Amino acid sequence: MPAPINTFKRDLAAGKTLFGCWLSLADAGAAEMIGTTGFDWVLIDSEHAPNDIRSIRAQLSALNGSDSQVLVRVPVGETWLIKKVLDVGAQTIMVPMVESGDQARELVRACTYPPTGIRGVGAAAARASRFGSISDYVTTADEQICLLVQVESRAGIAALDDILAVEGVDGVFIGPSDLSTDMGFKGNVDAPEVQDTIRDALGRIGAAGKAPGIMSLGEKTPVYLEGGARFLAVGIDVVLMLGAARKTVAKWKG
Q1: In the structure, how many helices (H) and strands (E) does the chain have?
Q2: Cross-strand partners of 232
Q3: Across-strand partners of 22?
Q4: In the annotation, is 122 catalytic?
Q5: pLDDT digit string, tens, across residues 100-121
Q6: What are the residue ranges spanned by the domains of the chain?
Q7: Catalytic residue (one of 1, 5, 29, 48)
Q8: What is the pLDDT of residues 19-76, one digit of tens each?
Q9: Sequential DSSP letters for 131-184
Q10: Among 19, 160, 190, 193, which has the highest number of CB atoms less than 10 A from its own CB?
């Protein structure tokens, strides 16, 4: 029995455009609820949200019956951490602040078993293999792992071509807020210099045969779609909840 098909990876490879939601509440119940709303994908964030390996595992379990595919963003691209996230069942990993081809190559190695990679073999006790019931997990898992790297700094943009040349990187996700800040435009992702850089990056990512992605919570979504973005985060659970709450308060309290 092989590893489950990663339909997020399959759909990206087929050229589909996918819309997702960030999960920042670090709560399995909230994740389960968002998983019923129809997003193509949801992302459990452990960079800026208070998640640990246990809360990630709980949310993966809660989303097991959802039609939304589940991504996990690690806080940093450390091999030991990626190993844990893969073992609890994540098949799609996003890594922030990737700034070189060498860094991207090490991330590919962290996501794959030997002899091509360095992922530790502990599948018999892992949720990823359904605790050993997926008999061919170790021999089939690599091809179902999807690695997404974030480019969100001037250094990352400068190294973009080297990153795109790395086999095993499936997509590159642009972080407009970090990128604009690093470029000297704090809080201003709409600065023409930032938007020009983003459009150029999205085009280069797509031309290299990788999937371009981006965070887009506002009016820029049509622009990014036109620029070639194919997986877009168009919501964050915290923002959606607060927006609805504030709207209700404004309605009844004036």
Answers
A1: 12, 8
A2: 19, 214
A3: 43, 236
A4: no
A5: 999 999 999 999 999 999 999 9
A6: 7-253
A7: 48
A8: 999 999 999 999 999 999 999 999 999 999 999 999 999 999 999 999 999 999 999 9
A9: TTTSTTHHHHSGGG-EEEEEE-SHHHHHTHHHHHT-TT--EEEE-HHHHHHHTT
A10: 160
